[in-house]
Write a structure and sequence with these properties.
With 269 residues, the chain is α/β, with parallel strands linked by helices. Helices cover 24% and strands 28% of the residues. α6 (137-147) links the parallel β4 (122-127) and β5 (148-162).
């Protein structure tokens, strides 16, 4: 039984092992090891860090790197750096003595659509089960590209689609809707267009591999920053068509449907 603040939200307590199940075994650890081997200052950012479990697991593995995490706002199990001590001990990552002596990751609380970091700052950016909550997903992706160093990588879980979703969510990325020439345009095709424009960004769609998400089809992207040119997605946000799904109060498989349905028109770039 975990002690202290209530820790009930599965999306907020995902582990590094959960992340590797989405992207491949030890993909984050390998990216960080490569960076540590070639640079003096190595930095990682997790967007939507929840309780900070992944942050503390990475701190255990990489004692000297600079680690940041972002949540939109504080909550009982994550109010600031001191909360990370409880997270580290509750999940048995550190002993109580160890948790009070390590250099704690740095949590931030604001909307990740505008990242408060300099250009070319991070070696690795990660996110799982979070971006679907962000209203301006286009801005977030452009910001992630901006803060990556040349040659750095981002591993971003974008959205998931579950069998049995209502019709208006029965899409590849139900919370990231793109129209081109007034027709629905698959996110995977949109990413291919970015690759055609010489941005090294790949899209992958996989089925859930964990017991709690076996019916999910998950869409993720991997960014490899191969140019210092800014990322212009060419997306125009449709305010009137976009909304917070939680206001519908719809229940699916016992849980409230959540996330922000962001709708865009793809412009010519």
């Amino acid at each position: 039984m975990l002690s202290g603040a209530k820790r009930k939200y599965i999306s907020r307590c995902r582990s590094l092992a959960d992340f590797n199940a989405k992207f491949g075994n030890c993909v984050i650890e390998d990216a960080l090891r490569d960076a540590v081997a070639s640079q003096e200052s190595v930095r990682l950012l997790e967007i939507g860090c929840g309780e900070g479990r992944v942050l503390m697991e990475l701190r255990k593995l990489f004692p000297s790197i600079e680690i940041h995490g972002i949540n939109k706002k504080p909550w009982p199990a994550m109010k600031g750096p001191e909360s990370l001590i409880a997270t580290g001990t509750n999940y048995k990552i550190f002993s109580k003595e160890e948790a009070r002596t390590v250099e704690l990751p740095i949590p931030h609380f604001y909307d990740a659509a505008q990242l408060r970091f300099p250009d070319h700052y991070f070696d690795v950016v990660i996110s799982q089960v979070s971006i679907y909550q962000v209203k301006r997903k286009d801005q977030l992706l452009q910001e992630v590209w901006r803060v990556l160093k040349r040659g750095a990588r981002a591993f971003l879980h974008m959205d998931s689609m579950s069998e049995g979703y209502p019709d208006f969510l029965n899409q590849e990325t139900p919370r990231f809707i793109i129209y081109k020439n007034k027709k629905s345009y698959p996110f995977e095709m949109f990413v291919k267009e970015l690759r055609d424009r010489k941005y090294d960004i790949t899209c992958r769609i996989t089925s859930g591999q964990q017991s709690d998400d076996a019916n999910l089809r998950r869409t993720s992207i991997v960014m490899h920053k191969n140019t210092d040119a800014e990322l212009n997605l060419g997306l125009s946000f449709e305010e009137l068509s976009s909304f917070d799904l939680s206001v519908l109060g719809k229940i699916f498989n016992g849980d409230k449907i959540v996330g922000y349905r962001s709708v865009y028109q793809l412009e010519n770039v």
